[in-house]
Amino acid sequence: MVQIRKAVEKDLPRLVEIFRVSRQQLLPFLPILYTREQDFAHLKDLMGRGEVYAGVLAEKLVGFLVRIDHWVAHLYVHPDMIAQGVGQALLDHAKTKSSKLELWCFEENQRARAFYEAQGFKLVRTTEGDNEEGLPDRLYRWVRD
Ligand SMILES: CC(C)(COP(=O)(O)OP(=O)(O)OC[C@H]1O[C@@H](n2cnc3c(N)ncnc32)[C@H](O)[C@@H]1OP(=O)(O)O)[C@@H](O)C(=O)NCCC(=O)NCCS
Fold it and tell me: Does ligand 1 lie within 6 Å of residue 98's CB atom?
């Protein structure tokens, strides 16, 4: 049973670990642009600007979602813990906080695309690489009925 709680500053090292290992293993097409220290600073900054929810399974923090207003800035689950309902539980929680959610997803990220589409997100538009990585991506939107 996945539990959701607000992430706090002392969770940051674990959030950075999940962020980096999830990108390396599940999004291997992404260039590594930042160091661990830079990722730490980035997530700390986001924690100050929005809300970060932690997904906890068997008392271990295994995934997180960053929400800034109606934007899902990040959603990552540890690769060893995917397909166990953690991503969905985090997204369901974010859906209770906003009547609309939007997010960017890389074209190549088939797993996440299928996941978001199964969670009711609709494609709004695509870009040919209008992001730091220079890779094609897609804007998705969910609106509460
Ligand atoms: C995408 C991600 C967040 C999904 O989280 P998850 O915990 O693995 O997903 P869940 O187990 O909660 O999936 C819930 C439901 O979504 C759907 N779903 C999930 N993955 C799917 C897939 N690859 N294809 C189709 N449907 C999928 C299913 O309906 C699933 O329900 P089921 O378990 O009954 O089949 C996770 O795989 C991840 O962290 N990936 C790497 C990072 C990433 O890509 N983040 C998104 C950046 S935009």
Answer: no
Angle between helices 12-26 and 36-49 (to 10 degrees): 120
- Would you tell me how many other CB atoms lie within 10 Å of the CB of residue 94? 22
Would you say the CB of residue 28 lies under 6 angstroms from ligand 1? no
- Per-residue pLDDT tens digits for 58-81: 999 999 999 999 999 999 999 999
Residue 63 to residues 9, 21, 38, 136, 143: CA-CA distances in angstroms? 15, 11, 19, 25, 23
Pick the CATH number of 3-143 from 3.40.630.30, 3.40.30.10, 3.30.9.10, 3.10.300.10: 3.40.630.30
Rg of the chain over all Cα atoms, to the nearest angstrom:
14
In tens, the pLDDT along 37-64 reads 999 999 999 999 999 999 999 999 999 9
41 lines ligand 1 (CB under 6 A): no
What residues does each domain of the chain span? 3-143
Pocket residue to mutate for ligand 1, from 15, 21, 88, most atoms within 8 A of Cβ: 88
